[in-house]
Amino acid sequence: MTGSLYRSLTHRIILGFAALLAGVAVASAASAADPSGQVTVGSTVRSFTLHVPDGPRPPGGFPLVLAFHGGGQQGPAMRRLSGLDAVADSRRFIVAYPNGIDKHWNDGRSTIRNPQDDVGFVSALIDQLQRSYDIDSKRVYATGISNGALFAERLGCDLSRRIAAIAPVAGTLPSDIAAKCSPERPVAVLQIDGTADPIMPFKGGDVADFGGAGEGGKVLSVRDTAAFWARTNGCALPGKSAPLAPTARLDRTRVVATRYDGCRPSGAVEVLTVTGGGHTWPGGVQYARRLFVGVTSRQIDASRSIADFFLSQPPR
Question: What is the mean pLDDT of the chain?
C-alpha cells in the first residue's frame, strides 16, 4: 500500500473517531453528570472520566472496569464506541475512561514514540478511585480496543497484583513484551478478535503503521496470545471450539468460542473469534468505513460479553 493511501486511511479513521466524539453529547443525558478527574503522576497531570451507576453499592463494593481507547482517540470516544455505561448500569459496576497522552498508550512496543509511564498512571488511578468510591479491590478489570487492547495486555503482565482480568478487543500481546511478561498472579483473559482485521494482524506480525503515521511494531497472533496466557495460568490444552448461534440474520460474520480447560483459580482463558470481523468493537459503532477498518459484527455485544466474563470470575 502506498504512503498516500495510508495517509488517506489514517485521515478517514480519524474522521470516524471525531464522529464518535461528536456523538458523545447525545449518547446519554445521564452521562453529562458523571464525574471527571485528574491524577498527578510525577510532574504530569493525567485525566479521566467515570460512569458510576445510581443506587446503592453491590455487596463487597463496586467492581471497577478500566476501558482504554484506541490510538488517536480519547476516553469519550471509547465511551461512545463501547456503550459500556448502559451495561454498567444493569450489572452494577463503575467504568473509568482514562485519557492517553497524545491520544496513545505506552503498550510496551519498542516503536511507541512517547514511552510515558502509563502503568504508573493506572496504578495511581486505581488508588485514587478506591479512596473516593467503595470499590472492591479484588474485582478490578481492564479492557480496550487496538492500542488500548495492547495496553490491557501489558497491564496483565505488569500490574497483575491489581488487575484481576483483562479483555482485549482487536489487539493481542505485543511481541516486545511477550518474552519478559511474568505476571505475579493469575490474570483471567478474554480475547475478542476479528479474522479480517486489516490493522492488527489476526495471525500476528506487523501492525499497520499508516505510512509512518502510526506506531507500528509487531504483535503475537491471537492463537499464540491465548496460548501464552494459558501457559501462564496453568491451563491444559484448549477445549473444543464451539460456534455461537447467529443472532443477526443479515450479518455474515460468525463467532466461535474457545475455552481453555484446567486453568488455575482466577486464571480462566477464553477466546471469541469473530470470523469476518474487522478492527472493530462487536456490537459497537461502525466508526469508519468497512473498506478501512472492516466489519463490525452484530452477532455479539462485546461489552456484555466482557461484563459477563469479568463478573463471572471468582474474586481473587
Answer: 90
Number of other residues whose CB lies within 10 A of the CB of residue 79 = 25
pTM: 0.91
C-alpha cell at 316: 481473587
Nearest 5°: the CA angle 251, 274, 240 is: 120
Task: Output phi, psi for 58, to 5 deg.
Answer: -70, 165
Residue 146 — φ and ψ, nearest 5°? 60, -120
pLDDT in tens, 186-227: 999 999 999 999 999 999 999 998 767 678 899 999 999 999
CA dist 173 and 249 (Å) reads 33
Q: How far is CA 202 from the centre of its chain?
A: 16
**For residues 44, 50, 56 and 58, what is the CA-based torsion angle, rounded to 10 degrees?**
-80
Q: Which helix (H) or strand (E) holds 188?
A: strand 188-194
* CB proximity list for 207: less than 8 A, separation 6 or greater: 109, 199, 200, 201, 214, 215, 216, 217, 218, 219
CA distance 266 to 189: 10
Three-class SS state of 80:
helix
